[in-house]
């Protein structure tokens, strides 16, 4: 007996990704901010306490929820090795060519025996508001007369209003992280798609998202 197969999209609550903003099927919005890490082990005891306290104070000042996500993935060293191999082809000094080949072999053997992991830190920022809906009565009949162009315009206005509120939250998050000594950047559409591709394809190696 054949089973009714459902598309993967039916199980994902995302409607679309527009201008770097995730639009959920329920109408809520999400933005993703990529943050760098802080190595506390390189700081003194007092500096560690000050950093932790600053981050705690930052979280306590927020009046909206956020989600902090950490992705650990194996580092793809192949682009780096390809770069070194291309350098060999244009190198005229025999000794340097030999040393580069030995270095490539060392890196290849080392990464095959030891899993080098890379971590990405994301802050997911939400925004939602309650929308009154009516399918019957005078109000429903009024909106039913709207043309497709008018309905699309209203949707765009609603999106822009919600995005404005969301971007204010993003600014608050980035300012707070900056006070903690953490650099951050909001992901654009292509980068957001890459994040979700990695989530749903965990077997793939590390991609190109990075914090400048």
UniProtKB/TrEMBL annotation:
<dbReference type="InterPro" id="IPR058596">
    <property type="entry name" value="TraC-like_dom"/>
</dbReference>
<dbReference type="Pfam" id="PF26593">
    <property type="entry name" value="TraC-like"/>
</dbReference>
<feature type="domain" description="TraC-like">
    <location>
        <begin position="19"/>
        <end position="197"/>
    </location>
</feature>
<protein>
    <recommendedName>
        <fullName>TraC-like domain-containing protein</fullName>
    </recommendedName>
</protein>
